[in-house]
Amino acid sequence: MDRIPILKMGPFLLVTIQVDLYDRLALNLENDLITMVSKTEAKGVLIDISAVSIVDSFMGRILGNIASMSRIMDAETVVVGMQPAVAITLVELGLTLQGVHTALNVEKGMELLQNKIGLNLLNQEEYQEPADDTDL
Amino acid sequence: MIQISKDSMPILREQDVVPFRNRVRELATKIGMSLVNQTKLITAASELVRNMLKYANGGKVLLELISRNGQTGVRLTFEDQGPGIKDIDLAMKDGFSTGKSLGLGLPGTKRLVNEFSIKSVPGEGTTVTITHWKNGR
Amino acid sequence: MKNATSKVIRKNKAQILESWMKYQLTDEDLRDDLMNMEELHGQSEQLLDSFLNALESGNMNDINAREFEPIRDTLGEISVMRARRGYSPRETGTFVLSLKQSLFDALEKEFKSQPEILYKEIILVNNLLDSLSIFTFETFIKGREEVILRQTDEINEISTPVIRVWEGILALPIIGTLDSARTQIVMENLLQEIVATGSSIAILDISGVPAVDSLVAQHLIKTVSATRLMGAECIISGIRAEIAQTIVHLGIDLSNIKTKASLASALRLAYDMMGVEVKKMDRRSKISLL
Fold it and tell me: Across the strands, what pairs with A103?
């Protein structure tokens, strides 16, 4: 069965979609990614769609699902490199991918993920501080 | 209106979708449609083909290149023998869907193309015709 | 089957052409500045030839038939050309209609003694030329419409510049009404520039948009959404007091969109978002240091 490779890079998972997606492939990707997130306890998922020329409502939904499912497992999702024509079409279709972070390219996407995770860590530290106080 | 070329393609399995999309892209490229308009047309076609597979177990698509008032365009007719749509007005409303999708299907598709028409007889089938002109107007 | 008129034309072709030319030239409004005589003569002769051929084929009433194709082509060419050169509809119409007069003259001379035939032939020629002149008008107008369409495209192209104001910041001053065709172009230009320059912030300045109704607002929201999908942020600036009023009165929700009153404050916000600081330089202290 066709599968899209998922790369692990530190705390992040990296997916580059190089072919036009059909439904089965997209569903496989959703499954594989979520399994990987839970297995590796990844903190972020980066999906590069710069080579994808068509995103319809089904694939848009898959991207949204991946983001929501990852979030439940404490991982942020960023979709990078969407082509202008695809963005215009999605907006016209009425699909704005709420809840999915976006970035221009892989580099900026990585930066965004690092910031998000940094912020999350910061928030956790802030949260723990008062607990320490009560211990004293 | 003049018909320049005509072709038909059966859509029976999910695997037929990608070749179909490529065929639509070929037609659109042939008349020099811009990338944005191509993407809109192919996305709309993709939505309709999915509907056809999901609700009617497939059907067939007629692909035509047409010319009207000096404009050239691509016209696609999706024909199935599925259960049909009971209330078309309702199906054309944003947010309506009987399937588990986002419910953007038909109205979203309509927004993507220049012309959209739908005919449906419950129990007999549905025919959707979309036309997109070269310059998207 | 040959009819009386085609025989007459065949016999008197040279005279008819000459008298037709004369009729065309006596028209006071003829734009001799736009047209040269040789060209006019060539066109007239070409048209008369194809007219004669069509008549000799036996078809006398349906100008949409195959026999009239060369005539339609010639007429179409001439009227589109005249539309582009700025002829008036009257000048273009006269071209065909003046042929009527010369044909009538020739027919009259030929059939002076046979009024019945004369009447029949004149009616025939009359109807035929009327249809042809309607066709000419139609093509003439189509030619003009093409000119208008092309100009609209050009205006749309020119009027939506994308300016790179800073590393990573683009600005788009929108001037004039924002309709859906225009939005499309604005969106395309903006998104393409975002990719080309790798910019992460775009400022859409609408100071030059005369009015914002719910449709325009929707176009703006679409542009902002598309920019976000690409991974860039969009700020809308240049919102005048009356525009803010209409937006609220129409119940348009712009709360998800960053808006600023002026381009300057939008730019400040953009600097802020990018972590850039703009400071006034103290020149004097520098000089004293030197």
Answer: A80
Q: Which of B47, B58, B41 is nearest to B130 (CA)?
A: B41
Helix C37-56 / helix C69-85 crossing angle, nearest 10 deg? 160
As to burial, measured by CB atoms within 10 angstroms (0-12 exposed, 13-18 middle, 19+ buried), residue C62 is: exposed
Contact B79, B61 (CB under 8 A): yes
**Is the predicted pLDDT of residue B97 greater than 70, yes or no?**
no
Asked if B42 has any chain A CB less than 8 Å from its own CB, the reply is: yes
Rounded Cα–Cα distance for residues C25 and C34 (Å): 13
| Domains assigned to chain A | 6-135 (3.30.750.24)
Architecture of domain C4-154: Orthogonal Bundle (1.10)
Are A36 and A9 within 8 A, CB to CB? no
Are C230 and A87 inside 8 Å of each other by CB?
A: yes
The pLDDT tens digits for C27-62 are 666 666 666 777 778 888 888 888 888 887 766 667
Chain B residues whose CB is inside 8 A of the A23 CB are 14, 17, 50
Q: What is the DSSP string of A16-81?
A: E--S---HHHHHHHHHHHHHHHHHHT-SEEEEE-TT-----HHHHHHHHHHHHHHHHTT-EEEEE-
Size of interface A-B (CB pairs under 8 A): 68
pLDDT value at B104 more than 50: yes
Q: For chain C, which residues make up each domain, given as ranges?
A: 4-154, 163-274
Instruction: Indicate if ipTM > 0.90.
Output: no
